[in-house]
Design brief:
The strands form 3 sheets. The chain has an 8-stranded mixed β-sheet. The protein has an 8-stranded mixed β-sheet with strand order 6-7-8-5-11-14-13-12, covered by helices on one side. About 20% of the residues lie in helices and about 35% in strands. The mean pLDDT is about 95. It contains 5 helices and 18 strands. The protein has one domain: Roll (2,3-Dihydroxybiphenyl 1,2-Dioxygenase, domain 1). Pfam families: Glyoxalase. It comes from Rossellomorea aquimaris.
Amino acid sequence: MNFHQHPYTHINHVTINVQDLKRSLDFYQEVIGFSILSKFEDTVQLTADGETPLLTIHQPENVIPKQPRTTGLYHFAILLPERADLGSVLNHFAQLNIPLGSSDHLVSEALYLNDPDGNGIEVYWDKPHTIWTWNGGQVEMAVDPIDARAILAEGEGEPWTGLPSKTVMGHLHLHAADLDETAGFYTKGLGFEVVSALGNQALFLSTGRYHHHIGLNTWNGAGAPKPAENSVGLQSFNVHFPNQDERDAAATRLKSLGYQVEIDQDGSISAEDPSGNKMFLTV
């Protein structure tokens, strides 16, 4: 089941700020396995299939390092199509001696790492949705150890050649200043549902009963400030709607809730959540 296409609203593109564009481009090509889709003086669009932009890296003027204890990016998550792909990339990371975290979330198996600027990255695959456990409207997730040997065995004989063409942006996990207020923006405004909670520290939201398209946490502190615009970290992301009517209805709901919605001359629609995370509403 594909939770990252029509009729589901999902995250399909993320833009991050970096300190050194060339250094970051080398990392995202050689370590993560993206290809260049378009390249400009201060910005590069990256792709897995040669057609679809998934990640944009941007070097702002007078860029400053990642600021601690702010809202913004916790990690963006790259979803691989098969477990064998995760085995291949795990072997690739091991050969490069990349420091990694990992977890079996019951719904997925995931690897965690940082780019050269400290931007968080998750690389994962989803277990079949038919084996996910739901209790009412809540999906069961955990933070268990992965079976690295089994994952590597799945990828045996599959040489690493970069990201598979069917790779997508799986989800986005954000630092929030106020968990409930920020969650309300996504549920009441954009139409996501809360499908899991980690105490009063983190919430996970999705459409279509996915385990999560968006994660929110207050691990940088309740009331954390928004980072500077020229700081390393999240610049913006796309919330992709199945059609224009649903996109426009979401924009109208945000306005009715008192949030500022910007409509540019080209028709693009943008907004900021209560924690200062900027997004574009796309179709």
